[in-house]
Amino acid sequence: MPDANLTPKQGQIYNFICDHIQSMGYPPTIRDICKKFDISSPNGVMCHLKALEKKGMINRNRNLSRGITIQGVNAGGYSLPLLGVVAAGKAIETTQQDERLEIRDLFPNENVYALKVRGSSMIDGHIAEGDYVLIRKQESADNGSKVVAMVDKAMTLKKYYKRKDSIELHPMNASMSPIKVDPSRQEVQILGVLVGVVRKC
C-alpha cells in the first residue's frame, strides 16, 4: 500500500507500477505512465517518479527504459512442464515427472533483467544475435566475467578485465579486437553480470 505521505496522484502512479509489474512481468516505461494518466510531458511523470524515489517507495535504474523496481513486488511467474531428465551423453532410463519449472526460480534475484543481443562479438561464447541474455544488476565484476558495460553512453556485452591503468572489454570472436578504455579519459560503468542465456531454436 502507498505511504500516507504520498499525494493522490503519486499513490495512483505507485499502484499502477505495482500492478504492471505483477501482471505484465516487467515495470512500465515513462511513456506507459504518460498514456495511463494522460500526462502530456514525460517531465511531469519524472517529477512524480523522483518524489516516489525520494520517499523510498521505488528504485530506479536510469540507464534502462524499464528500470523501476519496488521492494517486495515481484513479476508474475512463468512456468513450463518439467517432464523429466534427458541424457546428453549415454542414454539413461527415465520416468515422466509431474512437475513444473518456474523460470523465476532459476534466477530468484529480483535485480535480474533481460537484454536482446545484437551483433556477433560473443559468438565464441555461445551467445548469438537474437539471443536474450539475463543480467544481474551490479556495479563491479571479477576479471573474466561477462558483463554489460556502458562506455561513453554506448552499451556493450563483453568479457571484463581490469588492468593497472585501463579496462579491457574483450569480445568472444576471434575476428574482433578488445575495446581498451582509459578511465581517466572515458566514462565506463558496469551495469551487470551475465547469469543466463535464452535462445529460441
From TrEMBL:
List the residue(s) that the UniProt entry marks as the site Cleavage: A88, G89
CDD domains documented for this protein: S24_LexA-like
Q: Where is the Peptidase S24/S26A/S26B/S26C domain?
A: 81-195
According to UniProt, the reaction catalysed is: Hydrolysis of Ala-|-Gly bond in repressor LexA
Q: Which EC numbers characterise this protein's activity in its record?
A: 3.4.21.88
What are the GO MF terms of this UniProt record? DNA binding; serine-type endopeptidase activity
Renumbered to this chain, the signal peptide range is: none
DNA-binding region positions on the chain:
30-50
One of the GO biological process terms: proteolysis
Entry annotation: catalytic residues = S121 (for autocatalytic cleavage activity), K158 (for autocatalytic cleavage activity)
Mind listing the UniProt keywords for this protein, alphabetically? Autocatalytic cleavage, DNA damage, DNA repair, DNA replication, DNA-binding, Hydrolase, Repressor, SOS response, Transcription, Transcription regulation
Q: Indicate the segments forming the LexA repressor DNA-binding domain, all copies.
A: 5-67
HAMAP family per the record? LexA
Self-association and partners: Homodimer.
Q: Which family does it belong to?
A: Belongs to the peptidase S24 family.
Q: What is known about what this protein does?
A: Represses a number of genes involved in the response to DNA damage (SOS response), including recA and lexA. In the presence of single-stranded DNA, RecA interacts with LexA causing an autocatalytic cleavage which disrupts the DNA-binding part of LexA, leading to derepression of the SOS regulon and eventually DNA repair.
What is the name listed in the Swiss-Prot or TrEMBL entry for this protein?
A: LexA repressor
Source organism of this protein record: Limnoglobus roseus
